[in-house]
Structure formats: C-alpha cells, structure tokens
Amino acid sequence: MRAGQFEEAFRYYRQAIQMDSNNIEHYIHLGDAYAYADQPARALAFYQRARKLNPHDPEPYFALAEIYRRFGRFDAALAHYRKAIEYGARNAFVMFKYAETLAICQQYLDAIEAAREAVNYEPSNGFFRFWLADLLERSGEIAEAMLEMEIATLLNPEDDYYHFRYGLLCLENEYPEKAIESIQAALRIQPRNAVYLTVLGDIYRLQGQVEQAIAFYEQAGELDSYAVAELERARRLAGIQFNGLPSEFIRAQHQE
Q: I need a surface site. Which of 96, 200, 221, 224 has the fewest CB within 10 A?
C-alpha cells in the first residue's frame, strides 16, 4: 500500500469514528491501518480505545497482543492473548499466535499445549501440524514430532520443506531409509535445491557410500552464504556431525 493510500484509509476511518464513535470496529480498523503503515504507537492507542469501549470483546485484546509482540513486550503480548482467548477468540490462528509467542519466551510446554489446541480446531491444516511438530522436536519429543510432521506431509504433499524436515526427523531418530525417501520426495518438488542435495549426500556418506555421496554433492555445486547457513541448521537438526562444504570433501577425496 502506498503512502497516499494509507492517508486515505486514515481519513476514512477517522470519519467513520466521527459518525459512530461507539463502534469498536472503526477503532480497530484505524489501528490496523496505522499498524500496516508501520506506526505501531498510533495503532496501540486506537486498539486501547477499542478495548475501553467494550472490555469483554476479544478482538481489541488480540490486536493489542500483536502490537505488544511487535514492540518486543512479550509478557504484555501473552497477557493480551490470554484475555482474547478468555473472551471467546478460540480458533486455530489465535492459538497458533499464542503458541508462537510462548515459544519465543521458551515456554515450550505451554506452547505445545496451545499448538495442540490449534490442531484440534483445524486438524486438516498441515501448517499447524508442522508447527506442532517443530515445537515437539525442540522439546525433545521426537517420536510424536515425527508423527505430526508425517501427517503434515500427507496433508500438504506438494510442500517440499515439510518432506525435508520430516526426513531430518527420521535421520535424527535413526531411520536413514525413511530419511532418504522423504528428502527424495522434497527433491522431486525442488530438484535443484542445493541444501536438500547436500543433506542427501551426507546420509549416503554416513552409510559409507562415498561415491553416491559425491554424486549428490556434485549436483549441489557451490553453496551461497544463505544455503550454507541453511545446511548448518539442517545438519544440527538431524544430528549430522560433518563440518565443511561438500566441495571440500570432494577435493579431499580426489587427493587420496
């Protein structure tokens, strides 16, 4: 949205408030416009006014929670998410945002509980399954994380990253064949993904199949800085202890 469109939105909702100053929606919409315009302090003021109009309406609390989170005031954000939930905003998206903020605060048990509620509201939504799996993995509940991630891949079969993350979980849980199968599924969707190719090479290397490892490393080619960071993260998640880039391993093999 351009600056002129923001100004038009500000004028429209201010006029709406003048015509009906008791309508909570007008204050929230104006607050939303300021939030989108990257003016969170003004957004906060209008959300607070909406809350004062009806302290039992969940919508202003949710909007306030989002703004406090944007400011990095996570305790205040959590308090307002809880109020929104208390007053009736119980749906998958609200529970997901609440869980996400709990995870930022490293309150993983509560985050998992909230994520499970999100899944209960929308059990066929692969994203919420994926998010729950990610939280479970971070909490060390690998078996349940694998189950939820597998369901996510079944619900979203065209999402390459879900297949890749499921493969990493399988490898972490010592199911290398399943890991290969899942990462190959990811590669069928994104056949040139250098990180996927490198991790597949890593798995064959772990199994002592050096020639196959090199074949995948060569397909991966040189990794840019973003891919290197993603590779390091993937190796850490899967418990792969290799250091260095595929090209370094290939050169070392050729020197032997």
A: 224
Q: What is the DSSP letter of 256?
A: -
- Residue 161: which residues within 8 A CB-CB, separation 6 or more? 186
Q: Mean pLDDT, 10 residues at a time, over the chain (256 residues)? A: 68 86 89 88 93 95 95 96 95 97 96 98 97 95 94 98 97 94 98 96 95 94 91 94 86 75
CA distance 46 to 10: 12
Instruction: Determine if residue 122 is left, alpha or beta; phi over 0 gives left, psi from -120 to 50 gives alpha, anything else beta.
Output: beta
Choose which CATH entry (3.80.10, 1.10.3470, 1.25.40, 3.90.1200) describes domain 184-256: 1.25.40
Domain range 3-183, CATH class: mainly alpha
